[in-house]
Amino acid sequence: MSKLVSAARAAPQAAFARRGVCRAMFVGVCVLCLAASAAATIIGSASMAAMGDTPMPGGWTMSTLWTRMCGQTWAEVAASFIGMWIVMMVAMMLPSLVPMLWRYREAVGRATQARAGWLTVLVAVGYFVVWTALGVVVFGLGAAFAALVMRVPALARAVPGAIGVVVLIAGALQFTAWKARQLECCRNAPGRCRKLPADARTAWRHGLRLGLHCGCCCAGLTAILLVVGVMDLRAMAAVTTAITSERLLPGGKRVAQVIGTAVVGAGMMLIVQAAGRG
Question: Is residue 10 a part of any domain in this protein?
């Protein structure tokens, strides 16, 4: 009897130890992915900075990301942008994605450790597929806009003011009920008490759903990054900090509103500066 009691007591301890090892391995892999993507993003940013920007009417500069260099095809330009976009998104979104991936890993706890690991990877792949699709759309719009402002100087002169308006709207979006709903979905997905089937189809759909919610939740902050400088390390660091803070800190809705207040102020300042130049 005493042996049975000892075995019953040891079982939860062994399970707890296995969970701790699994979590340590999970965090370690995520840290390595984050470090690799951050390093690649820094190298890519330095490479773009070395190429220089194109001065435009209105006192701003346009990145060569959106233009075709001599000897390049548009397919090569698009592939280069999408590659940098994916690496950048991994570096920016992974800090806030890790808790959601771990909750998914626990939600399929009945699966073996190896299977749960591969399913979690599949969730992450589905998540970043959504961001990759968004990058394709962003490149198409950005390239078209770049071609337009190169041909229409009057439109180019209006860009600094338009940037301020975009930032202002992005800040105001932080206060909306829509933003609060999307943020709540990101902070709690999947529910802590929810169990999910341990199959590839569910994992893939869960990753896509996470990516869609995240893309909607980050729409305003991503727009700021695009108009301020998509490969600007300072802009990336600021947006990453904002996204991670509103996802992970207590009182996410209040944090989002604090961020919104700062962004609205920045937008108003940019509008005033643009008006002063005009």
Answer: no
